Amino acid sequence: MKHYTYCHSAPNGKVFYIGKGVDNRAYSFGDRSVNWKQAVIYHKGLSIEKLAYWETEEEAFEHEKFLIWCFQDMQNTLVNLTGGGKGPYKIQHSEDANRKRSEKNKGYVHKKITCTKCGKHGGETSMRRWHFEKCVGIRPFKARVTIDGKRIYLGKFSTKEEADAVISMAYKQKGLNNGIRNDKC
């Protein structure tokens, strides 16, 4: 079984962190939160215990969430930043952090930019991420007609109206009405 859940506790046995891991994650001190590091310093060390092994990562995540809920329900203070599981499940920011983020974003207006190829307007982030790589510019309208069974290319035009006007003129010059001879009408 590859996945497991584990706990970190103070030398006196008080659990302060619940985690899910593979390989040596339980014994790794890297990539830990500031709160976790402060707890280790405060308790002057830690004990590491693997609690259960699981066949799948999903089972291990569910067990981690359940253990975090149990310890919090028993009024244990954990330094876990989230409620466990994959991603920021049940993450709680402090009121001070929320206020700072709110103040920082008040009145912020995203920079607007325009594509030089096609003239589309949008927010800078979205345009750079989604539009610019795929933009082919303003596609010209091609004018083509079929006269006497032959396809004739008349050129490219910037608007559909211009292309339609050239097509109509070509048919009129050949005595056709939208590709149908007038003498057959």
In short:
By secondary structure, the chain is an alpha+beta fold. It is 32% helix and 26% strand. The protein folds into 3 domains: 108 residues, 3-Layer(aba) Sandwich (GIY-YIG endonuclease); 29 residues; 37 residues.
Protein described:
Strand 8 (176-177) and strand 9 form a beta hairpin. The chain has three domains: 1-108, 3-Layer(aba) Sandwich (GIY-YIG endonuclease); 110-138; 141-177. A three-stranded antiparallel beta sheet has the order 2-1-3, with helices on one face. Strands 4-5 form a two-stranded antiparallel ribbon. Strands 6-7 form a two-stranded antiparallel ribbon. It has five helices and nine strands; from the N terminus they run ββαβααββαββαββ. The chain is of the alpha+beta class and 185 residues long.
Helix content: 25-40%
Query: Approximately how much beta-strand content do the residues carry?
Result: 25-35%
Arithmetic mean of pLDDT = 84
- Secondary structure tally, helices: 5
Rg on CA atoms, Å: 34 Å
Name of the CATH first level of the largest domain: Alpha Beta
The biggest sheet, with number of strands, parallel, antiparallel or mixed sense and barrel status, is:
3 strands, antiparallel
Order of helices and strands: EEHEHHEEHEEHEE
Count the E strands.
9
What best-fitting shape do the alpha-carbon axes yield? elongated
CATH architecture of the largest domain: 3-Layer(aba) Sandwich
The total domain count is 3
What structural category characterises the helix and strand content? alpha+beta
Strand ordering within the main sheet: 2-1-3
The CATH superfamily name of the largest domain is GIY-YIG endonuclease
Q: Name the poorly predicted regions.
A: 181-185
CATH topology of the largest domain: GIY-YIG endonuclease
In whole angstroms, how far apart are the ends? 82 Å
